[in-house]
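Schema walk-through. Below, the input block comes first and the output block second. Nothing else is stored per chain. Lengths vary across the set, and this one has 366 residues.
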Amino acid sequence: LEDNDGTGAQRESDAGSVRRNFPRVRALRARAQPGRWGLLDRGLEEQNMPSAGAENRTMTEAAHCIGRGVEAACMDVEQCARAAVAPAGGHKFAFVHSYDFHKPFNLAHYIKAMSLWAQLARDDHMDYVLLAPSARLRGAGIPQDLRANLTKLGVRIVEVPWIIPPRLSPCIPVESGGCCGAREFMKLHAWGMEEYHGVLFLDLDVVPAPGATLLPLLQCASTGRFLTTRGNHSSVNAAFMAFRPSRAVLGEMMDELSRAEVSHVCGWNNLGWGAVHADRVKYDARMQGFLYYFFYQRPTEKVSATGVEPRAVNFCEWNMKDLLDICYKELCSGTTHTRTYHHAKQPTPEECAAMERKHGRGGPGL
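--- output ---
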């Protein structure tokens, strides 16, 4: 297990070590032909185990919003926000990033996006927060020049006591790909920030669109909704999520992470990978897979007991990814206006014309 400071001995993290915790799956793997999901799916059915491959084939690629394994109606954020009741003194909201300092923080790389978020926070009277590991974890504090520049930008630096959850299950690999492996669970600290009625967690490469406001999303989140968007290959994209912080929910997530199991074949606790997943390519053994499991795949009574209602919002509007094939009709016609971009941009007239030629009148952007 990892030590509390997140620097304990590395555990084996290759797919083989994970599968050793799943003897039934190992036996099925031996019978299946490489790359042949059909045979493996049938074996999984015999064992009453879910199949990531089967889920992926039955899910429409044009889904804007994902629910419990199926395409779902997108949350009407504006309507939800209008129903939100502000407490005495008004809501207190925040935009939140995290950075684990596994590599030096390159402010020059992030300054453009961070300046936009800082201005948006000022305009809407919100806080702007960066979660960072404590000096004890890093062996040194945040460099003084960086701290001074972030403070000048209007960033509130919040130091946290762990990077990798201290009781992380041995069946969850520390290194599982992506940017950070299990270090990405550091984002969960935002759930403990109960001084805020709502937070919008954002990766540092998410950029707000000119003139956009995210206030309705936070107002809706303050009512107890966990608002998420889909990703290219994941049912939940952990780069963009709005919620009302709760230390009780954070504690439950930590308990779940202390005993959960995850495998390439069967996902989290044998419940598959959700509706959107790239078989044999995507291994969501970290935040995205865990959040979808915790809020969308567990029994509804367990999710309801948290007091949180998970709802998906239209990624074309709220967290535009490079999925123009799905969004081009509404973006090119102007019926939807994107509020943030994540490795994407507003399509040009030439790109819109190319999409029309590619898909014609019956394309997936309907």
